[in-house]
Structure formats: C-alpha cells, structure tokens
Write a structure and sequence with these properties.
The structure holds 2 protein chains of 2 kinds.
Chain A lengths: L2 E11 L9 E11 L3 E5 L6 H9 L6 E6 L2 E2 L9 E4 L11 H10 L5 H14 L15 H13 L5 E5 L7 H16 L3 E5 L3 H7 L2 E6 L2 E7 H5 L3 E7 L5 H5 L5 E5 L2 E6 L2 H11 L4 E8 L3 H13 L1
Helix pairs in contact in A: 2-3
Chain B lengths: L1 H14 L2 H16 L16 H28 L3 H5 L2 H6 L5 H37 L6 H4 L14 H25 L4 H16 L1 H8 L7 H13 L9 H5 L8 H28 L4
Helix pairs in contact in B: 1-6, 2-3, 2-6, 3-6, 3-8, 6-8, 6-13, 8-9, 8-13, 10-11
The chains are: A alpha/beta, B mainly alpha.
C-alpha cells in the first residue's frame, strides 16, 4: 500500500536562547499508509501539533524530511487533496455558518453553483442545515467544531489531519464526530488523528504512535500494542505458602481477606500458577484482562518520565 | 478569486472592530460640529465668510488625516498577528492558498477598509463645506467695493480642491498601511504600533531630513549620511500633505491632476515595494 505520509529523521527546534533550545520534535520517523486511520497521541507539549504543522507546511523542519501524498510537506498542489481541522478552531465570527463554508469553497476556486451545492450538502452532513444562516457568534463550541469538520470536508480530501476533533464536545456531538471519522476510514480516506481521547483513538484507529518529549516511544497496530494483556487468577481458602509458591511466575500477588489475586503476563505463567496452586487453594476465577490504550499510554509515559 | 475572498473577509472583519467604528463616529461628529466654527470661533452657525469656510476646510482635512492615520495604524498592526492568534490562518494556509495571495488579500482588504472610512468621512466633510458655503455671506467684489480685500474670496458652493484633499489623505495612508503590514509579518502589534508611529512622524518631516542631509548642512558627514539614508528609505508623507496648497490660492499647484498622478504613482510604487518585502519575509514565516 502506498504511503500517505512519510516522515524521516524529522527534528524541529524552536528558536530562543541556546539554553531554551529543546527540540519540540526529536528525530522522529514513521509512515502512514493510504486508507489508514492513524492515531498520534502524547501528553501536552509532546510535539503532536508541531508535527502536524510541519506536515501542512505551516512550520519548517530544522532537519529531516516530511512527505505528504508523495510530495514534500507544504506543496501547494498536494493541499488540494488534504485538509486540516485545528484544535479549538476559530473562524470569522461576523460570518454565518453558510458564509464560512462558502469562503473556504472559494479558496478551492469553486464556481458559484458548486459552492452553493457544497455548502448545503456539508451543513446537512454535519447537522447544521437549520443553523447555516446564523452568525458564528451565536454558535456553541460543538457547533463551531462541526463547522470546522465541514470546512475540512470541502475538497473531499484523501488525507485529513484532525487535531483534537472531539475536545470539549457534549456526548452527542462527540459520538457524531467519532462516527464520522470511522466512516471516513470506511470510505478509504487516510486520517491522521491527534487526540487526548484515548477511547476514541482505540475505537477508530488502525495504528497508533505514542510521542513523548518529541520522540516516538511506541508505534504499531492496536493489536500488536495491546496484545500483551495480563490474566488475573483468583483463589480462595489459600494456604500460607501459596503466595511464595506462585510469586516467581507472577507480575504481582495481592491478598484481600480470604481471596488471593495473582496477576500474570503470559499464558505459560498461567499454567505454572495453576499447577503450583493445585491442592493448595480453591480456584475462583481465571480472567484474561485486555490492556486498554489508556493503560498502555499511562504506563509508557510514566516509564519514560522515570 | 482567492485574493478577493481574503480581502472581502478582511473588510468585513475590520468594519466590525469597535475601536475603528469609534474613530469614524468621533471624526464624523467633529466634522459636523465644525459647521458652527466662525472666524472668531464664536460658534455662530450663520454669520459665515470665506475665512470661516477656510477654517472648516482646514479643520476637516486635518481631522480626517488624524482619523485615517489612527484607523490605518490600529487596523494594520493586527492584520497578520491576529490571524495567527485566532488560528484562522491555519485553516486558510492549509488550503491551496499561496502565501503571497494571503498577504495581497490582507493588504487589499485593509486598503478597502481605509477607502470606505475615508469616503464616508469625505462625503460628510464635503457636505459640511457645501452647507457652510450656502450660509456664507458673499464678500463684495472689488468692482462693487472698489477695494481688493486681502483674505476674502468669492465663495463657491462646491470646491473640487477638497475632493483632491480627501484623495491625498487616502493615498497617504495606503502607504502607511503597507509599511505597517510589512512590519506586522514579524513584529508584535505593540512594537509595530510604535514603529508605524515613528515612521509616520519621520516621513512627515521629510523636508527637514532632506535639509539635514543636504550639502549645505553643517552637520558631521556621518550624521548627514544617516539623514540621507533615513530620507531615502522612509516614505515621504509630506508629499501628500497638500492642505495649505489647497486652501491658499496664492500657493496653488500648477496642475493638480498632474501632481495627483505623480503622488499616486509614488504611493503605488512604495506600497508594492512594501508588499513585495512582506511577501518575501512571509514565505519563510512559521505560523
């Protein structure tokens, strides 16, 4: 599959005094395939928005390469095929919703008839058909976000950069936008999604990269990253020597009254623990726990901070 | 089409700025109040003379220049920084918009806003001049009185010179706007405000910098060279200051149309130069 985004040894250091010069993006490399929904997650200030801005040609890299749809980042012709929704987008408040979409249509040099059709179609698609005549001053945050999504869909883009598309939205708007992102994926669009909403990322993304302090610390499919889930084995009426017996095979053992919980990483250890406990305790349950993206994210970030 | 769309949006945005609306309303209010000015400043609206009208014209042209100056300065300093601060620039430059199109669109929008404001003030000002002339007592002609009275002229209802005056004010501040636009690409609004203010003051004092840099000047050669550089690079805003010429027939310019043409070309040249520099800097500007 062709690459929609290719980043190689990309570094961005912002200006300032020599002492302040910490790279916002530090020698990162990754690719995003066409048709993929790629999650780009990291704590605040990790370098997510900087990376997106470099890919859009709004910032220039200090070193390294960034290609978008086979062309160097910022190429004007490529911009006909991509779109961007910034975090907390702001549009000209004096304009109505319909005027804003019309304005962005003009930036694609669309004719009057095409603009009119597109504006109606997009307002309908983002659920603002009834509010297109109102000025943005009267819009709620969720409505502004929907206008942001609408402007990002004007050119039926092949690649969308979405920066925190669901931040601060009510549950209905949140669900609508998550579903929209998933539907874009089904249409074969490539989506580069930066978000703090890890549940959303886990739901819609095919692959994820975790960036921390400008470096990519983990990258892979959700299946690969979250496969190493642990199993919790619970025993009752355990003898006093059980804990010592199972400890070598367990990640952690906890005793809570009559119950002993043993947390194990691999399938092999599950068998070892069960063998060790045979005849020494009553088995209550064996529960495989799937690691969530949030668990993984917190674990990685804490590990790196140590 | 892209440039025009950006320009129109800039106009819509600027015209809704409260501070610019206040400048315009105050200027119009003061121009109307000037109707009651008389030679003795006794605020009698009736007993006019050609001198009273001259007072109204002088006051009106000066006031319009101050208002246009404030509008140009306040609007210009935020042209680019505000787009970055509000993040509107991200969604625009992420579209197939060339960076030069954005700069030219912003400048065109600023010039249109200036034109609308100056035109509104100009129409009110010329109406006030006509109204004042209607109420003025005509002085006796030399034939009637047998004497030529110094400073007293026959009062015409419509004075085309005032239209030239308004045009000159517009041209002057299109140049200042272009200078401020250039600085707004890389300076903060506050620094740019003072930079624009300084450049305007130096530009108005062009005859002085010219004298100081002339061969006849007694200054040290280094200082003379310094003033020569200043005089060369800072736009000569004094060129646009024709109030005295318009009000005093004895200092009349031979061909007002020719002079306006030359000054228009000067304004055009300087604005294009500033825009070109702004485009060059903005090409590598990180937003």
């Amino acid at each position: 599959m062709a690459e929609a985004i290719a980043v190689k040894n990309l570094t961005k250091v912002y200006g300032g005094t020599l002492k302040d010069r910490v790279p916002a993006v530090d020698n990162i490399s990754f690719t995003v395939s066409e048709g993929e929904i790629f999650g780009f997650i990291g704590p605040n200030g990790a370098g997510k928005t900087t990376t997106i801005k470099i890919l859009l040609g709004l910032l220039f890299p200090t070193s390294g390469e960034a290609q978008v749809l086979g062309m160097p980042a910022g190429d004007i012709e490529t911009k006909r095929r991509i779109s961007y929704l910034p975090e907390s987008p702001y549009f000209y408040e004096h304009m109505t919703g319909a005027e804003v979409i019309d304005f962005y249509c003009r930036l694609f040099r669309m004719g009057a008839a095409e603009r009119k059709k597109k504006t109606e179609e997009l307002l309908e698609r983002v659920g603002l058909a009834e509010d297109g005549h109102r000025t943005l001053r009267q819009y709620s945050k969720g409505m502004l976000q929907r206008i942001g999504i609408a402007q990002a869909l004007i050119n039926d883009p092949d690649l969308l950069f979405l920066d925190e598309p669901t931040s601060g939205l009510d549950p209905i708007a949140h669900k609508d936008i998550t579903e929209l992102i998933a539907s874009l994926g089904k249409q074969g669009k490539t989506v580069f999604l930066s978000s703090h909403q890890l549940g959303d990322v886990e739901t819609v993304c095919d692959r994820v990269a975790i960036i921390h302090r400008g470096k990519i610390v983990k990258i892979g499919t959700l299946e690969d990253l979250l496969r190493a889930g642990r199993t919790v084995i619970t025993f009752a009426k355990a003898g006093s020597d059980l804990v010592e017996e199972v400890k070598p095979h367990a990640e952690r053992v906890s005793a809570d009254g009559e119950l002993v919980r043993v947390y194990v990483e691999s399938e092999e250890d599950v068998h070892s623990v069960l063998d060790a406990a045979r005849g020494k305790a009553t088995l209550v349950s064996v529960l495989p726990q799937r690691q969530t993206l949030e668990d993984l994210f917190v674990e990685i970030v804490r590990e790196v901070r140590k | 089409m892209i440039i025009w769309s950006i320009a129109k949006t800039t106009v819509g945005d600027a015209l809704r700025k409260k501070v610019l609306q206040i400048f315009l309303v105050v200027a119009i209010g003061l121009i109307i109040i000037s109707l009651s000015f008389s030679q003795t400043l006794s605020f009698s609206s009736r007993a006019g003379s050609s001198t009273d009208i001259m007072l109204v014209k002088s006051f009106g042209l000066g006031l319009m220049a101050v208002a246009a100056w404030l509008i140009s300065l306040v609007m210009g300093v935020s042209l680019i920084p505000q787009e970055i601060e509000r993040r509107t620039i991200y969604t625009i430059l992420a579209k197939p918009v060339k960076r030069y199109e954005f700069i030219v669109g912003k400048y065109l929008g600023a010039v249109l806003t200036l034109a609308i404001n100056v035109a509104i003030m100009g129409i009110v000002f010329i109406a006030v001049c006509v109204f004042k002339a209607m109420g003025a007592e005509q002085p006796p002609t030399p034939e009637e009185s047998g004497l030529a009275i110094v400073g007293m002229q026959q009062v015409g209802l419509f004075d085309w010179n005032m239209v030239w005056g308004v045009i000159m004010i517009f041209l002057q501040f299109t140049v200042l706007t272009s200078v401020i636009l250039f600085f707004s690409v890389f300076l903060t609004p506050t620094v740019n405000f003072f930079m624009g203010l300084g450049i305007y003051i130096v530009g108005v004092m062009a005859p002085l910098t010219e004298t100081l840099s002339s061969k006849e000047s007694q200054l040290h050669p280094v200082l003379k060279a310094f003033y020569r550089v200043i005089h060369t690079i800072v736009p000569n805003f004094d060129k646009f200051n024709v109030t005295n010429t318009l009000l005093h027939p004895e200092t009349h310019i031979e061909s007002m149309a020719r002079y306006t043409g030359i000054v228009t070309l000067y304004a055009l040249f300087y604005s294009l130069l500033m825009m070109l520099l702004a485009i060059i800097v903005f090409r590598k500007k990180e937003v």
